[in-house]
Amino acid sequence: MSLMITDECINCDVCEPECPNGAISQGDEIYVIDHNLCTECVGHYDVPQCIEVCPVDCILTGIEETKDQLQEKYELITGQAG
Fold it and tell me: 21-30 pLDDT, tens per residue?
């Protein structure tokens, strides 16, 4: 599942540096997550780091993906075969 940031985002800037894939960036009004880069931290951490640091709990499941799909995306992004 790649994640999405809701309009409850307060632009606190804590999620962006936590993303190991660089999937989070400042959008027009709030931060956004590029679903092509989001692996929910699979391959890096046990839990999504953006969710761990978000003070307003505005990061939710966006696109449903299996753990295998997320692992495959991680391998493509990092060039590491599992």
Answer: 999 999 999 9
